[in-house]
Design goal:
single chain, 9-stranded mixed β-sheet
Length: about 450
């Protein structure tokens, strides 16, 4: 029998469930979870009951401040990191220095200091860092990559990319720790690193210059006052006549209740703050122009208060154009007592069938002087357009040769996050920012090398 790869995990919040379920489910014959850590003991207790109920022994607990001891004591070969974004760099570096590889949720990190820390740790140790960009694995996104790589639209000249978050999912970034830029880097880092990675990967190029414009124009206390909104409760999980469609009640979702509402007394973290409250420092409307190394330009927009959720991508080339349109939720219809699922891409089975804008995905290719044709998309089921299942196969399984190169390294993580870093600097200065001017240390030269 092949020995099981020994995994550790730090961070047992919502996102950890994907990895934990894989390790006690489809990938239990390839990998095992031997130790885990979280600053909140209550969340560890909940996951321990979950693991034991599935017939597996509880992983050992360790202090997240003592990663080296845990890796040595438990023989951990890979550490999964599903913690707040601002903690990634320190945890990745500590993991590599202790002799294990790292599997880290996007974004890789939130600032230039974090990029330098990770780059130096990789150079010191020679160890591996996988960034889990699950949207690469979604069949619709893989199909667009194949179209571009085939040469069907010629050499890429420009990209237009619009992503809209609806008033349930979009609002959620303004309830949680993400609402403070020091924690998340803002939506240009936390959310859009997904999108920038897709473009880098689709067109096989490197971002070189970024100009950004945007601001907090819908959420937050100041905007609420400007629109004359009535006084609101500070959180959603409260019985109050002031609650409305923007209030999120953790008590109505069994897992949200178990992981957050019932564990608040351990660390005081409030997961359901009012999106129109004080203290929000991230933007909800963003527009970028991004230049790439071989001459293409991208126009990008992100809106976090749309009535529907999904994205549109148009890739123009010297021989034609490819268009991908995806509707992940067509509307938020508050016509019953059920609270809408927060992230429609993560739990698509709970998204209702709305009239007017059906959930759908369409990839259209049209060459110059030719008719448009719809490109078939291989069916993908499950979270994130079918991407999670295939991502987990790469992370935990025996990875097969992949001509699409979907597995993402730390350098791919850097190439995606630099767009957000340059964009955040551009928001402050009002000027375009060259990615080469960012202070990235050892990562700077590596960033400018063409993807392998």
């Amino acid at each position: 029998m092949t020995a099981l790869t020994r995994y550790g995990l730090i961070g047992t919040g919502w996102r950890a469930q994907m990895y934990v379920n894989a390790l006690i489910g489809d990938h239990a014959s390839e990998a095992e979870l031997v130790a885990w850590a979280d600053a909140n003991e209550g969340r560890l207790d909940w996951y321990q009951r979950h693991v034991e109920a599935a017939g597996f022994p509880a992983p050992a607990r360790f202090d997240p401040e003592r990663i080296a001891d845990a890796i040595s004591t438990h023989g951990i070969e890979r550490m999964i990191l599903t913690t707040p974004d601002s903690t990634h760099a320190d945890l990745v570096a500590a993991t590599l220095d202790a002799g294990a590889d790292a599997v880290v949720e996007k974004p890789l990190t939130v600032d230039e200091t974090g990029v330098k820390k990770i780059a130096e740790a990789v150079e010191r140790t020679g160890r591996s860092v996988i960034v889990t960009f699950n949207y690469r694995y979604s069949p619709r996104n893989s199909a667009l990559r194949q179209v571009i790589a085939s040469g069907a639209i010629g050499e890429v000249t420009s990209v237009h990319f619009e992503w809209v978050l609806d008033t349930v999912h979009g609002a959620d970034y303004f309830r949680r720790w993400h609402r403070e830029k020091q924690n998340s880097g803002g939506l240009l880092i936390h959310k859009a690193s997904h999108h920038f990675d897709l473009v880098n990967w689709w067109i096989d190029d490197i971002p070189t210059r970024v100009f950004a414009s945007g601001g907090l124009r819908f959420y937050g206390a100041e905007k609420a006052r400007q629109r004359g909104l009535a006084p609101r409760p500070q959180r959603g999980s409260i019985d109050s006549p002031l609650r409305d469609a923007f209030s999120f009640d953790l008590r109505e979702d069994p897992m949200q209740r178990a992981l957050y509402f019932e564990q608040e007394h351990f660390d005081g973290y409030i997961r359901d703050r009012d999106p129109f409250g004080e203290g929000i420092t991230i933007e909800d409307n963003l527009s970028l122009v991004v230049d790439y190394g071989r001459g293409a330009t991208m126009s990008y927009s992100l809106n976090a208060h749309s009535p529907w959720e999904g994205y549109r991508v148009a890739v123009n080339g010297t021989a034609g154009r490819a268009e991908l349109e995806v509707v992940e939720r067509g509307a938020i219809l508050m016509n019953d007592s059920a609270q809408p699922v927060v992230d429609p891409s993560a739990r698509p089975e709970e998204v209702g069938v709305e009239s007017g804008r059906p959930v759908a995905e369409t990839l259209t290719v049209q060459r110059h002087f030719g008719a448009a044709r719809v490109v078939p998309i291989d069916g993908g089921t499950g979270a994130h357009g079918g991407g999670d299942e295939q991502l987990l196969r790469d992370v935990f399984g025996r990875a097969a040769e992949d001509p699409l190169r979907r597995s993402a390294s730390w350098l791919d993580g850097v190439r995606s996050v630099v767009v957000g870093l340059a964009g955040n600097r551009s928001l402050i200065t009002g000027q375009a920012v060259n990615t080469a001017d960012l202070d990235l240390g050892h990562a700077g030269a590596a960033l400018r090398r063409r993807p392998a």
